[in-house]
Amino acid sequence: MPDAYAITFRFKSDSTYSERLESLEELIKAESPGKWWRETTSFYLFRSSKSAADLISHFYLKSKFDATKDIMGVINLSRKDHAHKGTFTDADWESILSNR
Fold first, then answer.
1. Residue 1 three-state SS
2. What is the four-CA torsion angle of 48, 49, 52, 55, rounded to 10 degrees?
3. How many C-beta atoms surround the C-beta of residue 47 within 10 A?
4. Distance between CA 17 and CA 69 in Å, rounded?
5. What single string gives the DSSP state of each residue in 35-82?
6. H-helix or E-strand spanning residue 17
7. pTM to 2 decimal places
8. Helix (H) or strand (E) holding 15
9. What highest taxon heads this organism's lineage (predicted)?
10. Which of these, 35, 33, 42, lies nearest to 9 by C-alpha position?
11. What region does 36 belong to: left with phi over 0, alpha with psi -120 to 50, or beta?
């Protein structure tokens, strides 16, 4: 069975916000076509057979995500694996996840 993942993201609010958001959400839903959960803002739970690094690359390259102004983090809930893209200003992401 594919691993369980959490993805969180923040898109800068500007003239292309909706377009960038929609492109990422379409890829997330396509990655886990059977089931996914998204009842809170900028957060999905889904399943995938890819690694966290592969998912970040896939979402970054195939969506309109802009790493100069947006941030995205993926956490593998089944294994000790995580990745992020964009400019994170808070170093706690890595320190918290590397110690789990």
1. coil
2. -70
3. 17
4. 10
5. -EE--STTEEEEEESS-HHHHHHHHHHHS---TTT-EEEEEETTTTEE
6. helix 17-31
7. 0.91
8. none
9. Bacteria
10. 42
11. beta
Q: Element (H or E) spanning 83, and its range?
A: strand 81-85
User: In the block, which residue shows the tokens 């592969």?
Assistant: 54
Q: Which has the closest alpha carbon to 65: 6, 3, 10, 5?
A: 10
Q: Please, which residues have CB within 8 angstroms of residue 51's CB and are 6 or more apart in sequence? A: 76, 81, 83
pLDDT in tens, the chain (100 residues): 899 999 999 999 999 999 999 999 999 999 998 889 999 999 999 999 999 999 999 999 999 999 999 999 999 999 999 999 998 888 899 889 988 7
Helix (H, G, I), strand (E, B) or coil at 32: coil
Rg (CA), the chain: 13
Stated length of the chain: 100
